Amino acid sequence: VDPVNGNDRFAGVRAARAKRTIQAAVTAVPPMLRNTVTIQLAPGTYHEAVRVSNLYSLEDGVGLQIVGNTS
Fold first, then answer.
1. What is d(CA 24, CA 63) in angstroms, rounded to the nearest whole number?
2. Rg of the Cα trace of the chain?
3. Which among 64, 22, 24, 32 has a CA at the least distance from the CA of 11?
4. What angle do CA 48, 51, 57 make, to 5 degrees?
5. 3-state secondary structure of 42
6. Which of 21, 32, 60, 67 is least surrounded, with the fewest CB atoms within 10 Å of its CB?
7. CA angle 12, 14, 18 (to 5 degrees)
8. What CA–CA distances, in Å, run from 15 to 2, 3, 6, 40, 66?
């Protein structure tokens, strides 16, 4: 996710075609998780409320991660 250069119409599967908002990235995650999904945040400021719902997995330790640069 890139708040400056991203576009929510992009697939968001690589940095050059990143989504602009965290919500668009979360919404693109399929509801049934077979593997852990990581949403990588590019540096920037994100002004949004994000709702995560209806995600599930039958495997322990599988989930959604949202990570970014802390510097």
1. 17
2. 12
3. 24
4. 140
5. coil
6. 60
7. 40
8. 8, 12, 8, 9, 15
For CA atoms 18, 50, 32, 62, the dihedral sign is positive
Tokens in use for 14? Answer: 């690589």
Tokens 């996710």 map to which residue?
Answer: 1
pLDDT, tens only, 7-52: 999 999 999 999 999 999 999 999 999 999 999 999 999 999 999 9
User: Both tokens of residue 54?
Assistant: 């209806």
Tokens of 52: 């995560």
**What global pTM score does this model have?**
0.90
